[in-house]
Amino acid sequence: MKALETERLLLRGWRREDLDDLYEFARYRDAGILQGWKPHENREESREKLDAMISDPENWAIELKENGKVIGWIKMAPDENRGKYYAKYVSYVLSKDYWGRGYMTEALSRIIRYAFEEQKVDLLSAFHYPHNVRSGRVLERCGFQYETTLEKTQEHYDGQVFDAVCYSLLAKEYFEGRG
Hints:
The protein is of the alpha+beta class and 179 residues long. The protein has helices at 19-26, 29-33, 43-54, 103-118, 133-141, 171-178; strands spanning 4-5, 9-12, 59-64, 70-78, 87-94, 123-128, 145-155, 161-170. The chain has one domain (4-178): Aminopeptidase. Strands 1-2-3-4-5-6-8-7 form an 8-stranded mixed beta sheet, with helices on both faces. The relative contact order is 0.15. It is globular and about 45 Å long.
């Protein structure tokens, strides 16, 4: 996995020693509820999630450069629903303790640059629950455009089904915006 840097952040592969930081933010309802996963009840649940993230080559830990603390994650995965495009979707989680400081916008901007400039992706997509308006604002700040709302397509860990608000960003739009 390629480590990526921003002014304040290091996006890097997950390590076993990240367990305490992961558990610290994954145990709170606000961290997982906006992504649809169950808050971790104990370190063992976080360890299982961590094992999966360590083996995922496009799941970066978001680390603060100033102190080495992991405050969230950001990942890319293939978006198989885009036909002719080489497409990936992005998803992310940030510890509630760090909301409102621009960290996720900074991390996502770096992932966008990596996807379009280094991986030559044609299109990035992202989804969020309608009640997660903060995520929509991050996407819009990073140049994503609203596409549509897919009704009743996202199942939450507790069985509730929610709409998915879909955004996308084309490589063409990204490069035009940089010119």
